[in-house]
Amino acid sequence: MIPGSFDYHRPRTIDEAVGLLADHAGDAFILAGGHSLIPMMKLRMATPEHLIDIQDITELSGITVGGDTIEIGAAVTQTQLVASEELASACPILRETSLQIADPQIRNVGTLGGNVANGDPGNDMPAIMQLLDAEYVLRGNGGVRQVKAREFYEAAYFTARDEGEILTSVQIPVPAAGHGYSYQKQKRKIGDYATAAAGVILSVTGGSCTSASIALTNVADTPLWAEAASNALIGSDLGPGAVNAAVDAARAITDPASDGRGPSEYRTHVAGIMVKRAIETAHARAA
Ligand SMILES: Cc1cc2nc3c(=O)[nH]c(=O)nc-3n(C[C@H](O)[C@H](O)[C@H](O)COP(=O)(O)OP(=O)(O)OC[C@H]3O[C@@H](n4cnc5c(N)ncnc54)[C@H](O)[C@@H]3O)c2cc1C
User: Which one of 17, 103, 122, 273 has the lowest number of neighbouring Cβ atoms within 10 Å?
Assistant: First the structure.
């Protein structure tokens, strides 16, 4: 339960952090809130020789809500996501999801960047980023590039981020005004990761669903954007037939492990219930 020894670095700029990653290629980890990394180090599942603590890099903080795009710095904490009224007004599913992550103490230090860069299928924000079609901004020695959240996750703890890159921010297209939203998460107790969870955003015009996006947490090696399930809703009246078709399509792409949260079949069943509840709640909230 004691981590191996490491050198600790505390850069003040992104450039300095990128330089440190390059200097210690393969042996360095970014340290953000530490609430995923430190437990992994204690279990010796992560054994970095260099820790690059990003908490003093002010360029990584800040939430900007523009007309078309929301930009959130990687070091913004889950508590800061909850606290922003402007963000909650433009994209309320971010507050609803943040409030279902762990507990207040963890949310006070856990960052959005750490949550999405980690690659743990149990993290809640990656599915929400896929749902919203967000892009991750990555900076390395070679410059800046953007990767869609829907293309970022390769397997559990494997992502498209190169080891020399730091995730600097997340860019989210502002969802349509009046959209309905919901994140439904079943967990064994407060503070637990999901047995299964589902997020939905949708828009309704004249009783017909004009756009929909559905994503799932912790029912596969990666977060899942449920494209076929989303399409099952579009053009429908969101009645039982369309909801059941979306639930079936979402369940079909799950492949959860059997573990302490239940057997695989049970977790797939729960995923279907979460999808149904999320669609119904989002529908009820849509203006
Ligand atoms: C008891 C407990 C319960 C929890 N429950 C939940 C839960 O229900 N849902 C949930 O989503 N999370 C949960 N978490 C995890 C928590 O939300 C973490 O804070 C979060 O996943 C990681 O954020 P962090 O800032 O702590 O990152 P860290 O732990 O510091 O880093 C995590 C990983 O991401 C990398 N990283 C961090 N920032 C960057 C960056 N900017 N660029 C590149 N790489 C980076 C690190 O090198 C590391 O590999 C829980 C944690 C605990 C301890």
Answer: 103
Tell the residue nearest (CA) to atom 27 of ligand 1: 114
Strand partners, 159: 153
Helix (H, G, I), strand (E, B) or coil at 137: strand
CA angle 240, 123, 53 (to 5 degrees): 155
Quick check: CB of 195 below 6 Å from ligand 1?
no
- Report how far ligand 1's centroid is from the alpha carbon of 35 (Å): 5
With the most atoms of ligand 1 within 8 angstroms of its CB, the residue from 1, 13, 27, 35 to mutate is 35
> pLDDT tens-digit profile of 186-200?
999 988 999 999 999
Q: Any idea which residue has 């730091």 for tokens?
A: 166
- Which residue's CA lies nearest to atom 47 of ligand 1? 30
Evaluated on CA atoms 87, 92, 93, 97, the torsion sign reads positive
- In a mutational test of the pocket of ligand 1, which residue from 101, 125, 161, 222 has the highest number of ligand atoms less than 8 Å from its CB? 101
If you search the block for the tokens 């998460």, which residue do you land on? 185
pLDDT (0 to 100) of residue 287: 87
Query: In the chain, what are the domains?
Result: 7-53 (3.30.43.10), 58-173 (3.30.465.10), 180-285 (3.30.390.50)
Tokens of 172: 């989210």
The overall average pLDDT reported for the chain is 97
The residue assigned the tokens 């762990």 is: 102
Q: Is the CB of 203 under 6 A from ligand 1?
A: no
Please give the distance, rounded to the nearest whole angstrom, from the Cα atom of residue 142 to the centre of ligand 1.
26
Rounded Cα distance between 164 and 144, Å, is: 12
pLDDT tens by residue, 125-166: 999 999 999 999 999 999 999 999 999 999 999 999 999 999
When pLDDT is averaged across residues 207-229 and rounded to a whole number, the result is 98
> What SS3 class is residue 285?
helix
